[in-house]
Write a structure and sequence with these properties.
It is built from ten helices and seven strands. By secondary structure, it is of the alpha/beta class. It has a seven-stranded parallel beta sheet with strand order 3-2-1-4-5-6-7, with helices on both faces. The radius of gyration is 20 Å and the shape is globular.
Length: 290
């Protein structure tokens, strides 16, 4: 017997997705459209957004669904606000807002330029903040809505080589915790997802520039397809979970940071020391060949 799509939790919902032209954002849009939701995408590349819109519109499962986009840099407050206004005008009041826009740039702390730290904070943190500030007043007025902020596994456990990116994702976590406390009284739900390594253009971009030690530490990590991460995010949203995790490793990191407390530091120290030792051995082998 065929499933009645109209009984799906997301059927008829109206969602705004930042970073919606690729990666986790686009995967979110695909699954939401496949479950009967209307979606509005925002990202900086209008060409990619239009390609995504055509694909999603063709995949709609109900005539009532709408798909559209606003090219915007969410790090710029007035552009973020314009994206929210256009989405609301086209779809109606938003039920779901997914803050998925993000960039990464690993490197040794002493080698990273100040501009990199600012870019990470501008897009990853202030981009999330700007969208939240634009949508929350209307959600308060309606007495409902769901904010879903995408952090990262390095927003749970600091990782060698991610001083710029990690700090911005910890900021997203701090913001989300506070919003959860403040907005519950208005009927607004908040979730935060901590995706592990995910097969996205961002992961491909960072691979060649990762410090040696970071590659060693990440070498045993499982890389998840975005569809799996998104399935877990939507399942968490449907069940109104605040913390959303994917995979055993993410759950282990969460337990390590929240239950083990100070024990996380000597454990991570050992992992980093092993990576540094391997780098020195690799450098020694290179010297021998010269």
């Amino acid at each position: 017997m065929a499933r009645d799509i109209r009984k799906d939790f997301f059927f008829g919902k109206k969602a705004l997705i930042t970073g919606g032209s690729s990666g986790i954002g686009l995967a979110l849009a695909r699954q939401l459209v496949g479950r009967g939701a209307s979606v509005w995408l925002t990202a900086r590349n209008a060409v990619k957004l239009e390609a995504a819109r055509k694909e999603l519109q063709a995949a709609a499962v109900d005539p009532s669904q709408k798909v559209g986009f606003t090219p915007a840099d969410v790090a710029v407050e007035n552009q973020a606000r314009t994206a929210v206004e256009q989405a609301t005008r086209a779809l109606g009041s938003l039920d779901l807002v997914f803050n998925s826009a993000g960039v990464t740039y690993p490197g040794y702390f002493q080698d990273l330029k100040a501009e990199i730290f600012r870019e990470m904070m501008d897009i990853n943190y202030f981009g999330t903040l700007n969208i939240c500030r634009a949508v929350v007043p209307e959600m308060i007025r309606r007495g409902k809505g769901h904010l879903v902020n995408i952090s990262s596994l390095v927003g749970l456990l600091a990782t060698f080589g991610y001083s710029a990116y990690g700090a911005s994702k910890w900021a997203v976590r701090g913001l989300s915790d506070t919003l959860r406390y403040e907005l519950r009284q208005y009927g607004i739900r908040v979730s935060i997802a901590f995706p592990p390594d995910t097969d996205t253009p961002q992961l491909a971009f960072e691979e060649p520039i990762k410090p040696f030690e970071t590659r060693v530490i990440a070498s045993t990590n499982k890389v998840f397809p975005p569809e799996t991460v998104v399935r877990d995010i939507l399942n968490g949203v449907e069940k109104n979970r605040y913390i959303i995790l994917t995979g055993f490793e993410s759950k282990l990191f969460y337990l390590l940071t929240n239950l083990a407390g100070p024990l996380q530091y000597p454990i991570v120290d050992l992992v980093v020391a092993d990576a540094i030792h391997k780098k020195k051995k690799a450098e020694g082998r290179k010297d021998t060949r010269v």
